[in-house]
Write a structure and sequence with these properties.
This protein is an alpha/beta fold. It has 2 domains: 138 residues, 3-Layer(aba) Sandwich (Rossmann fold); 151 residues, Rossmann fold. 41% of the residues lie in helices and 13% in strands. The chain is built from 12 helices and 9 strands. It has a 5-stranded parallel β-sheet with strand order 7-6-5-8-9. The two termini are 19 Å apart. Bound molecules: phosphoric acid mono(formamide)ester and norvaline. Norvaline binds next to helix 6.
Length: 310
């Protein structure tokens, strides 16, 4: 990407793209996935480099971005806090100026959203949020794509969120506002979603329920996440107590629609936020969901670097 190109886009939150851009990305992801399944080479990013900065652990995000970039003909540089100057207090702004002179795209997983915003403000190349304390847009991109693959358009549907009002919940709310569905949210007291932090203007895109069973009633999709997200480990014990009734089990799935799907961004803790029977059961699409991270992110990287194809 040439410096100063006015078309440059970052993907720091789900709301950074519009509904029609999502429609385009889902169609590109479908095409890219089909080619991959047919062993057709597709290398539009030859000679492009992605830098991946991880300040938190990852399995899916790392493998999906790294494998996806190589499959598209590009290459990857992997940095962590511990093995770069980021961990030795080099300013984020200086790191952004330097790294973005050498690569074409940057993916960052970190703590505060403000870190990737500062990085993006000083980057010559697009920056992608690979998870922050506040948001996880690439995951919801994959989740919505997975829903569409299994059940068609998500517009007008009901997604039940059972658990922490965390980065995943915030991003589901943004997606609901942009794509026109409703999130039924049930969290323990003290762990509610904050619409201002989630960044939604339309309170109509979600409804809050005290009991998780109520949130699941009539839902097209039931989804949850770990009780303790990365960075909050000190709260582990108090969260274990607070979240004990927020375990997605067979009873909750039974009050959802008969064809309801179950999703979880993973990693999962069977017996905590979900029973083994649900996550390993017939309504669960968690493995498709995980695989789809790679296909949607390939479409996203293609879009950020090359714009619309054709
Ligand atoms: N779902 C997700 O982002 O997984 P990782 O933490 O393994 O990247
Ligand atoms: N909410 C979880 C998601 C992990 C992919 C976390 O932030 O740790």
């Amino acid at each position: 990407m040439k410096p100063g190109l006015s078309l440059m886009k970052h993907y720091l939150q789900f709301k950074d793209l519009r509904a029609e851009e999502y429609a385009y990305l889902f169609e590109r992801a479908r095409i890219i996935k089909t080619r991959f399944k047919n062993y057709e080479k597709y290398q539009p990013l030859t000679d492009r480099t992605l830098a991946m900065i991880f300040e938190k652990a990852s399995t899916r995000t790392r493998v999906s971005f790294e494998a996806g970039m190589y499959q598209m003909g590009g290459s990857v540089v992997h940095l962590t806090t511990g093995d770069s100057q980021l961990g030795r207090a080099e300013p984020v702004e200086d790191s952004a100026r330097v790294i973005s002179r050498m690569v074409d795209l940057v993916m960052i997983r970190t703590y505060e959203q403000s870190m990737i915003e500062r990085f993006a403000a000083h980057s010559r190349v697009p920056v992608i949020n690979g998870l922050t304390n506040e948001y996880h847009p690439c995951q919801i991109l994959a989740d919505v794509f997975t829903f569409i693959e299994h059940r068609g358009d998500i517009k007008g549907r009901v997604v039940a969120w059972v658990g922490d009002g965390n980065n995943m919940a915030n991003t589901w709310l943004q997606a609901a506002e942009i794509l026109g569905f409703t999130v039924h949210v049930s969290t323990p007291g003290g762990y509610e979603v904050d619409p201002a932090l989630a960044g939604v203007r339309d309170r109509g895109c979600y409804k809050v329920f005290d009991h998780p069973m109520q949130a699941c009633e009539g839902a097209h999709l039931v989804t949850t996440d770990v009780w303790t997200s990365m960075g909050y480990e000190a709260e582990n014990e108090e969260r274990r107590k607070a979240f004990v009734d927020w375990c997605v089990d067979e009873e909750m799935m039974a009050v959802a629609r008969p064809d309801a799907l179950f999703m979880h961004c993973l990693p999962a803790h069977r017996g905590e936020e979900v029973t083994a029977g649900v996550i390993d059961g017939p309504q669960s699409v968690v493995w498709d969901e995980a695989e789809n991270r790679m296909h949607v992110q390939k479409a996203l990287m293609e879009y950020l670097l090359l714009g619309r194809i054709g």
